Design the sequence.
């Protein structure tokens, strides 16, 4: 295999994507390997190789005697061509074993625009993309946020893994290993897997439609446990990885990351992660320091990132940052900060000033719209955060907004422009006339996502999105401003896949067949082919993009994430009334239902949020 | 502590591009617990000096790297090899004084071995640059050995020379190995770094 690779790698861009051999990668004695598990990331190496979820599972699986976890990424089109020319199967990076010879291939569904790559990767392994055409092993699994609306991929995936993977992966491996030992076939093994809580085997459920063709839900064809996501209840005691594979093609961020807390209860009404990863759980500080230091030692990295959905909300964040900063030669980074001066103060502590720009996400340009989306950030928070940043020496600022949110009007758009202009004025007042603020504004288009209060909302039509984008672009021209807006076609596809039902699978298949892959990469995205695919699959695109009636049965209703549908509806109603829902870790329970479902004691961070 | 390391970059490591390779070295030094001196300036980085970058896909059997360690250290070679991935190993190290010339200034010629796709009848080279930089070419079977002159870090690529020598030669698909780095400094420098070849004797020699 290596000989063959050796002769084709000189022809491809960044060949180190395809060689494995990284520091901390694991190649076991192959005579002892009983079970081979491919962790498959449906995007290119640089994007996937630093993904923490897989780094965690990689270590958990490789800690099991007899199990070999390998990693596989989507080959870039040049490599795809070469693999096909040489008739080489897509392989695991560790042992170069073809994917078809694995027991399990587990995909992660981090974003919808990677779905065609999944089909392509299966095809490159000589496997049919369609689950029912694959009569033998490997089993093809999929997990991650995309698995929470699994239906668009239900025709391709043998089993979905719902929720957090650290515990269930062990149960899956036990079950599959046992089944393999007993000589069970794929169907029998899937029947066993379907009994594990948190596993959804789509072929055991058949969709029901009324005479008008309206979806009415799924009918289980057997007695299976409820399809509820898995969570790690004892999160505080959950070990962090001891090592991380160090990518050989360096990703943009060369750092280790430790997950300081899981879940976020801020309750932004558009945010899927905020609903999916509840309840909020924290790791104790002493453990984070100890295991963070071990990780830095084992990876030779000089930077540690404190990851979570809202880092500044971690109970002992300041003390944690200070302890880690005190370590010689270590820098600390804080992703996903809140918009308030406390967060900027924390960022200042990490000495990130000058090194990196400061990123703030007000999401909406007016107080009214921020109230609609429950982004509990006031004008004052934004300006005091910026003031603090400018006074601390930051010269570059990134602002993130969303366009096309429910109830948005031109006033809200003008609000974005005003906010940016006022920030600039403030900067000049603080730093003098000669200084120039580098400001970049990211304006993404709102995408209604499953399991959020805005899941029923309409996706804005093209003309309107582009008109509003122009309002912003026309009043903030380069070189003064760097404004990035989303491509409407890409956003549209994301909506169709994110809210799709089982019928959408046909469109994904047709699009892949027509040549779509790497849809998240604008240079490869081909909207015309998708357009044809949806038409041929007979999908009514315009109604799929529109508002969904509250009474409708949703394609993801059978997946229980712990947060109740009632709560989502209440939140939608409160959005229309401009009513706030506070973060329950700082105040009272907001009755989302998740703690009760998992018999967890709600985390209380005591007192008010630090920003008040 | 200033050191010149001689290392090999072979097998899978040949496909690691130079910039990534540089970052890999930073990692390896940190993993080995050896602190590198930092460059001065706005954006300090660990200081490393490669004799001459190796093209992606080429193997290198005797590459030279100059490093500056913050402290005196024992067993540097062993410590680095313990953490280096397969295909990268340090073969030798030489401590050099602060007055020693930069490793980049030592490079006067490079030896390459190219595996040709077939055995050409005779060696004919119709390449202008080859005239300027080619010191010697030798053919044994399908193995072409080249010695190329380096002038102010400028030289000609061995694959370019090889394709000029062999019509129909498909440059990227056949293995190229840099066998060694040559210097004509002879007695002018001391100590002679391990792994550096002497241009006049063409032998790997610590004393030249």
Sequence:
């Amino acid at each position: 295999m290596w000989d063959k690779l050796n002769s084709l790698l000189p022809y491809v861009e960044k060949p180190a994507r395809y060689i494995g051999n990284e520091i901390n990668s694991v190649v076991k004695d192959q005579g002892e390997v009983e079970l081979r598990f491919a962790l498959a990331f449906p995007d290119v190496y640089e994007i996937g190789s630093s993904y923490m979820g897989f780094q965690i599972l990689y270590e958990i699986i490789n800690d099991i005697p007899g199990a070999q976890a390998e990693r596989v990424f989507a080959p870039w089109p040049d490599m795809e061509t070469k693999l096909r020319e040489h008739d080489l199967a897509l392989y695991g990076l560790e042992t170069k074993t073809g994917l078809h010879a694995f027991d399990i291939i587990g995909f992660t569904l981090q974003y919808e625009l990677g779905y065609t790559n999944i089909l392509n990767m299966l095809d490159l392994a000589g496997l049919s993309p369609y689950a029912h055409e694959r009569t033998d092993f490997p089993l093809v699994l999929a997990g991650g946020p995309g698995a929470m609306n699994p239906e668009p991929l239900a025709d391709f995936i043998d089993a979905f893994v719902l929720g957090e993977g650290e515990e269930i992966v062990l149960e899956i491996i036990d079950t599959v290993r046992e089944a393999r030992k007993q000589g069970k076939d794929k169907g029998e093994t899937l029947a066993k897997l379907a009994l594990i809580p948190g596993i959804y085997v789509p072929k055991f459920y058949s969709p029901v439609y009324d005479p008008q063709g309206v979806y009415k839900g799924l009918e289980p064809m057997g007695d299976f446990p409820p399809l509820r996501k898995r969570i790690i209840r004892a999160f505080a005691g959950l070990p962090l990885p001891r090592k991380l594979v160090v990518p050989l093609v360096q990703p943009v961020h060369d750092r280790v990351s430790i997950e300081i807390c899981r879940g976020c209860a801020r309750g932004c009404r558009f945010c899927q992660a905020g609903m999916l990863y509840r309840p909020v759980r924290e790791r104790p500080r002493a453990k984070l320091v100890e295991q963070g230091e071990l990780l830095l030692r084992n990876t030779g990295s000089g930077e540690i990132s404190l990851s979570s959905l809202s880092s500044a909300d971690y109970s002992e964040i300041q003390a944690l940052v200070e302890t880690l900063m005190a370590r010689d030669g270590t820098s600390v980074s804080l992703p996903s900060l809140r918009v308030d001066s406390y967060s900027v103060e924390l960022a200042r502590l990490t000495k990130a000033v000058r090194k990196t720009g400061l990123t703030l996400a007000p999401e909406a340009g007016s107080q009214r719209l921020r109230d609609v989306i429950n982004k509990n950030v006031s004008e004052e928070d934004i300006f005091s955060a910026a003031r603090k940043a400018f006074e601390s020496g930051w010269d570059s600022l990134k602002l993130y907004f969303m366009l096309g949110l429910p109830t948005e009007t031109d006033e809200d758009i003008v609000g974005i422009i005003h906010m940016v202009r006022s920030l600039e004025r403030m900067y000049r007042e603080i730093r003098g006339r000669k200084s120039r603020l580098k400001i970049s504004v990211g304006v993404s288009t709102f995408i209604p996502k499953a399991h959020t209060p805005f899941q029923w909302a309409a996706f804005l039509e093209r003309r309107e999105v582009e008109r509003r984008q122009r309002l912003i672009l026309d009043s903030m021209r380069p070189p003064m401003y760097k404004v990035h807006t989303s491509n409407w076609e890409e956003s549209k596809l994301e909506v169709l896949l994110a809210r799709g039902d089982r019928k959408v699978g046909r469109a994904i298949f047709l699009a892949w067949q027509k040549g779509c892959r790497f849809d998240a990469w604008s240079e490869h995205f081909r909207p015309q082919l998708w357009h044809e695919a949806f038409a041929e699959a007979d999908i009514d695109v315009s109604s799929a993009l529109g508002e969904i009636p509250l009474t409708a049965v949703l394609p993801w209703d059978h997946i229980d994430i712990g947060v109740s549908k009632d709560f989502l509806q209440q939140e939608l109603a409160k959005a229309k009334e401009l009513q706030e829902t506070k973060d329950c870790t700082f105040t009272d329970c907001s009755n989302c239902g998740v703690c009760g479902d998992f018999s967890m004691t709600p985390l209380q961070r005591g007192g008010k949020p630090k920003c008040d | 502590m200033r050191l010149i390391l001689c290392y090999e970059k072979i097998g899978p490591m040949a496909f690691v591009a130079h910039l990534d390779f540089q970052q890999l070295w930073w990692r390896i030094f940190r993993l080995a617990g050896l602190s590198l001196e930092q460059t001065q300036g706005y954006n300090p980085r660990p200081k490393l000096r490669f004799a001459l970058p190796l093209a992606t896909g080429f193997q290198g059997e005797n590459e030279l790297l100059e490093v500056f360690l913050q402290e005196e250290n024992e067993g540097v070679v062993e410590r680095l090899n313990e953490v280096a991935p397969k295909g990268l190993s340090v073969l030798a190290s030489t401590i050099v004084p602060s007055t020693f010339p930069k490793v980049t200034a030592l490079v006067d010629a490079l030896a390459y071995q190219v595996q040709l796709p077939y055995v050409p009848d005779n060696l004919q080279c119709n390449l202008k640059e080859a005239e300027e930089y080619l010191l010697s070419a030798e053919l044994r079977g399908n193995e072409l050995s080249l010695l190329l002159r380096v002038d102010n870090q400028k030289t000609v690529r061995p694959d370019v020379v090889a394709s000029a020598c062999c019509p129909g030669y498909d440059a990227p698909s056949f293995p190229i190995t840099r066998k060694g780095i040559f210097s004509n400094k002879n007695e002018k420098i001391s100590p002679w770094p391990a792994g550096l070849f002497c241009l006049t004797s063409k032998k790997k020699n610590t004393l030249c």
Summary: The longest helix of chain A spans residues 410-431. The interface with chain B takes residues 2, 6-11, 14-16, 18-23, 246, 248-250, 254, 298-302, 329 of chain A (CB under 8 Å).
